Amino acid sequence: MKLKDIYSKSKINPVISLEVFPPKDGLDSLDAELEILKKYNPALISVTSTSSATNAVQSEIVQNIKNKMHLTVMPHLTCVRNCRQDVEDYIKILQNNSVDCILALRGDYPTDGTQVCCEFKYANELVEFINSHSDLSIGVAGYPEGHIEAESILSDINNLKNKLSAGGEVIYTQLFFDNSKFFRYIELLEKSGISVPVAAGIMPVISYKQITRMINLANISVPKNFAEKIEAYKDDKKSMVEFGIEFAVNQCQSLIACGVDGLHFYTLNKAYSTSKILDSII
Fold first, then answer.
1. DSSP characters for the chain?
2. Which residues contact 264 (CB under 8 A, 6 or more apart)?
3. Least enclosed by CB within 10 Å: which of 76, 106, 194, 263?
4. Tens digits of residue pLDDT in 257-276
5. SS3 letters for 68-88?
6. Residue 56, strand partner residues
7. Rounded to whole angstroms, how far apart are CA atoms 17 and 6?
């Protein structure tokens, strides 16, 4: 199913989507986590691209989710890991397997000096290429606080408009913990003439190391009470997970009350927290 259809015809409001990544310990572990989450009828499962997983490995996961789990799947494809021929080959594989959706990203440049392909410099170039070589439905990334490399939130939104003009259909946002930042982002998108669906990125707090890494990596703002709690529970894993669930439930309820188009959960391949959150909001 195409993204436009998913977000216009879904009987579940907001649309629920889940993100997973290629596991290091084999597909069985991912299957087990998805079996837990399948009962919530997610509209789609997105599969990230990682430095350790080739397109072939990602393709195996995509086919497994689609054919075995019978779920709509949206693999990621990045500029930094793929040259034009790689992209052309991969989208042919997807279409041959009746995959309808893809998420096109620039991707993070490696910090270890690893060589990357530079044929696509920006995500809009990748979106345009995919759009001109396939009938895949294309999702793109949005940043409620602006991309960390952008000069300003407005310049970042201009970059987003380029991605949408090239063929992007739905925006999936980076994780955030301050809903006011998201609401302000939506206002700015509307003022810029952007009207496509926006799925809010939600990441449950699972560990202190995980969440502080993400906050620092993307320069994400955190409310005072959030910062105090993760410091208080940094050595108490159980309390940290319980706090993460409670915080995300409140965050999602606020977003739903304001009419958010979609909730996109970064599951980290751990079903427990996401399932507890979904139990409370749907």
1. --HHHHHHH-SSSSEEEEEE---TT-HHHHHHHHHHHHTT--SEEEE---TT--HHHHHHHHHHHHHTS---EEEEEESTT--HHHHHHHHHHHHHTT--EEEEE--PPPSS------S--SHHHHHHHHHHH---EEEEEE-TT--TTSSSHHHHHHHHHHHHHTTEEEEEEEE-S-HHHHHHHHHHHHHTT--S-EEEEE-----HHHHHHHHHHHT----HHHHHHHHHTTT-HHHHHHHHHHHHHHHHHHHHHTT-SEEEEE-TT-HHHHHHHHHHH-
2. 17, 18, 19, 46, 172, 173, 199, 200, 201, 202
3. 194
4. 999 999 999 999 999 999 99
5. CCCCCEEEEEECCCCCHHHHH
6. none
7. 10
Q: What is the pLDDT of residues 160-208, one digit of tens each?
A: 999 999 999 999 999 999 999 999 999 999 999 999 999 999 999 999 9
Contact 75, 103 (CB under 8 A): yes
Task: Please say if 19 is a catalytic residue.
Answer: yes
Amino acid (1-letter code) at residue 87: V
Domains, the chain, in order of start with CATH, read: 3-281 (3.20.20.220)
Given a contact cutoff of 8 angstroms between Cβ atoms, the answer to whether 237 and 207 are in contact is: yes
> Are the CB atoms for 76 and 105 separated by under 8 Å?
yes
pTM: 0.95
Select which of 19, 33, 125, 169 is catalytic: 19
